[in-house]
Amino acid sequence: MKIAILGAGHGGQAMAGDLALAGHEVRLAAVEEHSTNLKILQVFGGIVVEGMTSTGAPTGFAKPAMITTDCVKAIKGAQVIMIVVPAFAQEVYIKLIVEHGERGQIVVFNPGKFGTLALARKLRQAGRIDDFLIGETCTFIFAARTRGLGHVDIKGVKKELPFSALPSVRTAEIIMTLMDIYPQMSPSLSVLQTSIDAPGIILHPITTILNMSRIEQIGPYRSSHYDITPSVARIMEAVDEERMSVARRICYETYSFKDNMSILYRVKGESAYDVMYQISAHNVLMSPENMRVRYITEDVPYGMVTVASIGRLLGMATPKLDAIINIACMANGADYWETGRTAEKLGLAGMSVKELIDYATYGTYTPH
Description:
By secondary structure, this protein is an alpha/beta fold. The chain folds into two domains: about 1-195, NAD(P)-binding Rossmann-like Domain (Rossmann fold); about 200-360, N-(1-d-carboxylethyl)-l-norvaline Dehydrogenase, domain 2 (Orthogonal Bundle). It is built from 17 helices and 14 strands. It has helices at about 10-20, 35-45, 70-75, 90-100, 115-125, 170-180, 190-195, 200-210, 210-220, 230-250, 255-265, 270-275, 295, 300-315, 320-330, 335-340, 355-360; strands at about 1-5, 25-30, 45-50, 60, 65-70, 80-85, 105-110, 135, 140-145, 150-155, 160-165, 185, 220-225, 285. β9 (about 140-145) and β10 (about 150-155) form a beta hairpin. α4 runs parallel beside α5. The longest helix is centred in the middle third of the chain and has 22 residues, at about 230-250. The model has no long low-confidence stretch (mean pLDDT about 95).
């Protein structure tokens, strides 16, 4: 299959190497301003994959068919376009697809962070809403990190990968194609669920903020399981319950952070603390080096803020989510409420619960 992967960070390199080793025609691309890692890979001519692969194929040197900063060339003729960048970097690739994407292509955000809704709005504004099949995963397929020049270590592969299309009535249609890439994909209710249920929204900001002093004193340091303690886990569960209360209004069903991690990694536990310490891929980690890490700069404005703003849209208070967001804003001297991906910026302002559900399910958009 011809697959364009946009983004050459930890995730993009892992996916490109994995799919190239599986025999797909992989085009790895990034725009010039995101090209530092890409240019290193161009020198080496490929990626050394360590750890494991999603298919069980042997690890080793993977050679994508194309490694380029010419993203237009990379997506030309591709059957699937995988966007594998942090949410704060998605906009440049959304613009690229709207302007240069080809009718009939499948576009997938890995993971979504409400990116599918952002793309749908831009496509609608450009009169291209029916030109693509678009969707997103709830989380990234791998736990992976780059290790030195041209090397990526895949430490874990999700056992199940929730996915939804927008509209969700087309989810099965897209999964039939994507199963040839990642058979771990399973249908989710809608892109509202894949984005709101994303476990990183809870895991990353809370563990980073509650380890802030240690991170700033000695980070990056060798850690284990995000340094979660029983008290940290209880805070995660309390904030998570508030996130779930928003999700229940528009998703019919929702999964707790604990249940999500249990599903993704096939582990069991009575609490978030118990579950996290069953995940072998998290045995050894490096902490962030400071508070400007994407665990804050992505997961707060493009996750927590979005959920809280949807809560406001539905008339729901979210004081616990708000507390974490406000601490992040104060710690970084930033206004994530202003810069974040809000319901209004996604074109959802004024929608009722029924209108939100109809839009996510059938693509029926009701402007206000």
